[in-house]
Design goal:
The chain contains two helices and no strands. The chain is mostly helical. It starts with 8 loop residues before the first helix and ends in an 11-residue tail after the last helix.
């Protein structure tokens, strides 16, 4: 049975090799570079989940705001035109 993984292991290994070959404090050993690559990958997944949740909330709030504005606009139009005589020009 194959399990799906949310981690891109190829990307993690590439990041680990770049860290190992680079000039930074995590490049003392490949195991340290690999641990750092996993930390970065896990942090990126958490960040992407938070951003997706925030974007969904913002979209929901925008839709609710548009609905409120639409309802207010409709009510305002009905109030404005309710006393109109047939064929009256309003300058719209």
């Amino acid at each position: 049975m194959k399990t799906t993984s949310k981690y891109n292991k190829s990307q993690i290994m590439k990041r680990a090799w770049n860290i190992y070959k680079g000039n930074n404090p995590y490049s003392y050993s490949f195991s340290a570079a690999l641990r750092r690559a996993w930390e970065v990958e896990k942090a990126m997944i958490k960040y992407n989940e938070r951003e997706a949740k925030r974007a969904a909330i913002e979209a929901e709030n925008a839709a609710a705001k548009a609905k409120r504005i639409s309802n207010a606009w409709t009510i305002g139009c009905l109030d404005y035109y309710q006393n109109a005589r047939p064929g009256q020009y309003f300058g719209d």
